[in-house]
């Protein structure tokens, strides 16, 4: 029975191994640290090849028990860590230290470097480390000289210093000693098989070693974000998670998010540059999680400037089409509630210019357009500068600043009161009322840069300023496109947007036919002027509501007080202006100074808003204004929430919104707030995640960018096992329900 | 009014744009640019800001007395030696503790002063950055983590105390101490040769 014989032999060998393990010399522990105090680095005593400390057990294992001279033998330094404790990879990340090995080897035997399995990322507050939990495996090859006399043992001594951390860190060390038997021929070396448990450990260590990346890797370390681009051939399909570990400190910010996307033939990661990206080798390890498991590759990227790639996975939007969209978006901007009042005021000025010549009109129109375009240019340049500075700037970001919102609220209140006749606004103030008349005093054709011209220009700039935050449909796509383009294309798109906005008024100014059909001036104009104050007041009310979302009741109180001081100051000025003729100079001057102090106090109050910005402001739509009987219960968006729901195979509907986004609020009322949609969500157990962009939030900005957008609204539906479906920016209940019912697993 | 250098005017205009658009340019601190501002109370209850440092150079030392890497430099009198050297050169030395309450290294003002006395340390002041705001503004990641600011308030060095990342006292001898290097270059009015290095140590316990 040869089979039984073999079995008995195996059992005997096993028994011997276990006896050896059990009766190995006892182990001396490293001194346990007093609570909260790190011990002085203390060597644990030798137990052949095992060291036990309170935080880990370290072993040094040879793969075979014998080695043939001229050959190599692999050793494995194993750390079995206590739960919660970790040791470090070769780049430990923001802090920490990798294990340091110093070998004492006889002449003719040399040790190679540690071969490191891929690490995991260990977040520590705002920082991140690279290292290992549970078990850390360090593989080292020893080379034995062919001249080594066969039969003589090789004494191997290893002194290891390591840092082991939980929340706090303990430096430890240990000495290991082994005697490696040598054999003349390979058959003798393999006649003594190693312990099967050891074989498993070696297998695990080798499986986790990063392979050489079978693809091109390009990196642009001068950029921000630092782009890493890998050719998709050679990478597996269906990557779910991706993480890049830099080989050395200084290349990337270890704790930063690493958004990635597939674009055409490339996979692109956006990394946040570290302290010295240009002076560090652009190499590291890429770890990808697919349905089949985790794969890791190591590579050294070639450094070259990288231009942004067109997003091949989104419907490609060519420059001409983007420009057309931008023009259309600009036209639509004129109808937005936050710009229409300004236009109305302009139209009023226009009604007063009936006797103007064509040249003067054209000049006026031109200046207005220039005002719009200059503002858009500034915005575009600022956007590009911010993009370069790595700030995720989204369209409408001015309205994320409570100070800006408060100043706009004050401006509209003052303009409204001016139209109401509460005080006479100087023509210097954005050309209200008197701008047209002043222009009329110029002989036609005589063009000077006077106050009227400035007024026309100012109105244009103002109109553009207040229009910017209203992301109209068409605009999201055009701007998303613009921000992924080289600067000139981005500016072209933004300027076309401005052109679209300026066009209707400019045409109205130039076309005499239009101008002739405007009614004759009269008393009605005063009434109309007063009527036009109401949209301005409404805008103020809306802005104050936005502010309440951003800064809470205390911020609102602050701004209302500021508005009070502002209006009081202007009233004082008006009093001094109207009644001050017969007064003594000092009296009038004093009143004016008091007025100035009052206005300055208002500004001082508004400036104080910045620290009041309340990042935990409730999402738009949870406020009273968007209350509805079928309010879907939303969870706040976070990448982690989305990921875990998708992992569970649950459908997810993501809604990115903001309190200052009119389109969003409308959609939430007319579509998402209906019983029909609520039912559809409930039937499929759709998780409804809502991201609130009222205040700037980098996580949401990153999400929007991933879909090539720069503004809200953005609606994305994730059906289980299908590609995410982006819904239009204008929703109907039917659209939403259709998306839920028709999207099925086709994406994989 | 000192003339504004090109670098700082770029920084200022960026800051202005950021202010205008209400964006927080949460950029990491940059060598050559103005150091991030801060407002932190010391163990005596005094408030320190960047403005307080104007007119003389300053060294910021992020510390946590329980961290083995910090202990290495204090047990060897290396950190104290640098503090005394800075004082002789009229350079302000601020030890900053960014450990959050309940985390390792967090101390009361009294405990901090006792630590200073028991270790013969000689910082100008010990700042208690319990909120971690100052640490985050500077991107302080380790203890020790050194930042050196010139008399104009510009950051001239950030990184490790020396080039030997270990907890071993024996490594102090023969290491290139970057703080010594910068102090020497400041005294000689020479340009700073090494301005960014890898900080090493325990993580800051935010």
Structure write-up:
The complex is a heterodimer of chains A (748) and B (206). With 748 residues, chain A is α+β, with helices and mostly antiparallel strands. In chain A, strands 1, 4, 7, 12 and 13 form a five-stranded mixed beta sheet that branches. In chain A, strands 2-3-5-11-8 form a five-stranded antiparallel beta sheet, covered by helices on one side. In chain A, strands 18-19-16-15-22 form a five-stranded mixed beta sheet, with no helix packed on it. Chain A is elongated, with a radius of gyration of 36 Å. Mean pLDDT of chain A is 75; it is low at 1-5, 11-47, 310-316, 390-398, 426-449, 469-474 and 611-629. Chain B has 206 residues and is α/β, with parallel strands linked by helices. Helix content of chain B is 31%, strand content 17%. Chain B contains seven helices and nine strands. In chain B, the strands form three sheets. Chain B has a five-stranded mixed beta sheet with strand order 5-4-3-7-8. A two-stranded antiparallel sheet of chain B has the order 1-2. Chain B has a two-stranded antiparallel ribbon with strand order 6-9. The termini of chain B are far apart.
Quick take:
With 748 residues, chain A is α+β, with helices and mostly antiparallel strands.
Give a count of the beta strands of chain B, DSSP E runs of length 2 or more. 9
Low-confidence blocks of residues of chain B: 1-26
Shape of chain A: elongated
| Percent in helix of chain B | 25-40%
Shape of chain B: globular
Q: Main sheet of chain A, how many strands, which sense, barrel? A: 5 strands, mixed
Strand content of chain B: 15-25%
Report Rg of chain A.
Answer: 36 Å
Number of helices of chain A: 19
Category from helices, strands and their pairing of chain A: alpha+beta
Helix content of chain A: 40-55%
The total count of helices of chain B amounts to 7
Mean pLDDT of chain A: 75
Number of strands of chain A: 27
Strand order of the largest sheet of chain B: 5-4-3-7-8
Radius of gyration of chain B: 17 Å
Signal peptide (chain B): 1-28
Protein name (chain B): AhpC/TSA family protein
Pfam family, one (chain B): AhpC-TSA
Keywords (chain B): Signal
């Amino acid at each position: 029975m040869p089979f039984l014989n073999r079995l008995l032999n195996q059992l005997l060998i096993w028994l011997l191994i276990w006896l050896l393990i059990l009766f190995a010399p006892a182990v001396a522990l490293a001194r346990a640290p007093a609570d909260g105090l790190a011990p002085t680095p203390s060597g644990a005593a030798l137990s052949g090849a095992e060291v036990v400390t309170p935080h880990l057990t370290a072993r040094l294992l040879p793969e075979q028990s014998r080695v043939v001279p001229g050959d190599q033998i692999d050793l494995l330094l194993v750390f079995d860590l206590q739960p919660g404790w970790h040791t470090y990879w070769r780049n430990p990340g923001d802090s920490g230290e990798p294990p340091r090995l110093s070998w004492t080897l006889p002449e003719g035997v040399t040790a190679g470097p540690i071969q490191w399995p891929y690490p995991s990322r260990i977040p520590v507050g705002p920082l991140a480390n690279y290292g290992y939990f549970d078990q850390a495996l360090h593989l080292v090859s020893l080379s034995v000289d062919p001249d080594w006399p066969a039969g003589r043992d090789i004494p191997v001594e290893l002194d290891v210093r390591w840092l082991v951390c939980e929340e706090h860190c303990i430096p430890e060390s240990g000495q290991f000693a082994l005697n490696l038997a040598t054999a003349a021929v390979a058959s003798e070396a393999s006649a003594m098989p190693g312990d099967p448990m050891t074989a498993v450990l070696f297998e695990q260590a080798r499986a986790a070693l990063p392979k050489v990346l079978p693809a091109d890797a390009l990196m642009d370390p001068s950029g921000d974000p630092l782009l890493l681009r890998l050719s998709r051939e050679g990478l597996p399909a269906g990557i779910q998670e991706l993480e890049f570990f830099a080989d050395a400190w200084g290349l990337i910010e270890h704790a930063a998010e690493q958004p990635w996307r597939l674009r055409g033939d490339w996979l692109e990661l956006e990394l946040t540059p570290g302290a010295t990206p240009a002076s560090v080798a652009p190499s590291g390890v890429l770890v990808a999680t697919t349905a089949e498991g985790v794969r890791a590759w190591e590579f050294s990227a070639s450094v070259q400037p990288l231009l942004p790639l067109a997003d091949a996975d989104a419907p490609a939007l060519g420059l001409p089409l983007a420009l057309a969209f931008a023009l259309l978006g600009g036209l639509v901007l004129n109808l937005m509630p936050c710009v229409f009042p300004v236009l109305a005021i302009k139209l009023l000025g226009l009604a007063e210019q009936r006797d103007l010549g064509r040249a003067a009109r054209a000049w006026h129109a031109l200046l207005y357009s220039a005002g719009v375009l200059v503002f858009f240019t500034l915005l575009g340049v600022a956007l590009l500068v911010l993009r370069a500075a790595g700030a995720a700037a989204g369209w409408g970001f001015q309205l994320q600043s409570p100070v800006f919102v408060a100043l706009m609220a004050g401006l509209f209140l003052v303009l409204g009161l001016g139209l109401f006749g509460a005080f006479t606004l100087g023509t210097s103030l954005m050309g209200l009322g008197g701008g047209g008349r002043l222009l009329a005093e110029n002989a036609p054709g005589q063009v000077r840069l006077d106050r009227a011209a400035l007024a026309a220009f100012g109105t244009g700039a103002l109109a553009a300023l207040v229009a910017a935050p209203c992301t109209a449909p068409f605009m999201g796509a055009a701007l998303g496109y613009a921000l992924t383009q080289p600067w000139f294309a981005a500016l072209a798109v933004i300027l076309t947007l401005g052109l679209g906005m300026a066009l209707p008024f400019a045409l109205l100014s130039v076309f005499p036919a239009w101008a002739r059909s405007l009614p004759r001036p009269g008393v009605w104009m005063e009434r109309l002027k007063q009527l036009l104050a109401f949209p301005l007041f409404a805008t103020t009310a809306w802005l104050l509501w936005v502010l309440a979302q951003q800064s809470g009741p205390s911020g609102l109180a602050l701004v209302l007080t500021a508005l009070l001081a502002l209006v009081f100051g202007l009233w004082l000025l008006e009093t001094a202006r109207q009644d001050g003729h017969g007064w003594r100079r000092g009296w009038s001057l004093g009143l004016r100074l008091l007025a100035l102090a009052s206005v300055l106090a208002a500004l001082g109050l508004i400036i104080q808003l910045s620290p009041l910005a309340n990042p935990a402001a409730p999402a738009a739509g949870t406020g009273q204004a968007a209350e509805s009987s079928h309010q879907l219960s939303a969870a706040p968006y976070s990448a982690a929430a989305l990921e875990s729901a998708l992992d569970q195979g649950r459908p997810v509907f993501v809604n990115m919104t903001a309190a200052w986004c009119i389109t969003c609020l409308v959609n939430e009322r007319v579509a998402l707030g209906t019983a029909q949609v609520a039912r559809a969500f409930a039937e499929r157990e759709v998780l409804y995640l809502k991201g609130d962009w009222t205040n700037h939030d980098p996580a949401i900005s990153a999400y929007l960018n991933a879909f090539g957008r720069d503004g809200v609204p953005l609606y994305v539906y994730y059906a289980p096992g299908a590609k995410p479906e982006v819904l239009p920016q204008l929703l109907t209940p039917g659209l939403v329900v259709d998306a839920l019912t028709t999207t099925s697993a086709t994406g994989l | 009014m000192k003339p504004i250098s090109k670098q700082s005017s770029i920084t200022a205009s960026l800051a202005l744009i950021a202010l205008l658009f209400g964006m927080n340019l949460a950029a990491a601190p940059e060598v050559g640019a103005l150091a991030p501002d801060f407002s932190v109370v010391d163990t005596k209850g005094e408030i320190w800001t960047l403005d307080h440092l104007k007119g003389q150079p300053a060294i910021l030392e992020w510390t946590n007395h329980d961290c083995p890497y910090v202990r290495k430099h204090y047990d060897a009198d290396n950190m104290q030696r640098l503090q005394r050297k800075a004082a002789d050169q009229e350079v302000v030395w601020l030890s900053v503790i960014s450990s959050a309450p309940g985390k390792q290294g967090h101390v009361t003002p009294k405990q901090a002063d006792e630590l200073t006395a028991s270790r013969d340390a000689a910082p100008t002041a010990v700042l208690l950055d319990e909120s971690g705001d100052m640490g985050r503004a500077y991107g302080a990641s380790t203890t020790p983590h050194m930042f050196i600011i010139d008399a104009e308030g510009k950051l001239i060095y950030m990184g490790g105390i020396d080039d030997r990342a270990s907890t071993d006292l024996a490594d102090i001898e023969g290491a290139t101490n970057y703080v010594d290097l910068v102090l020497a270059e400041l005294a000689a009015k020479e340009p700073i040769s090494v301005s960014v290095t890898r900080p090493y140590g325990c993580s800051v316990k935010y």
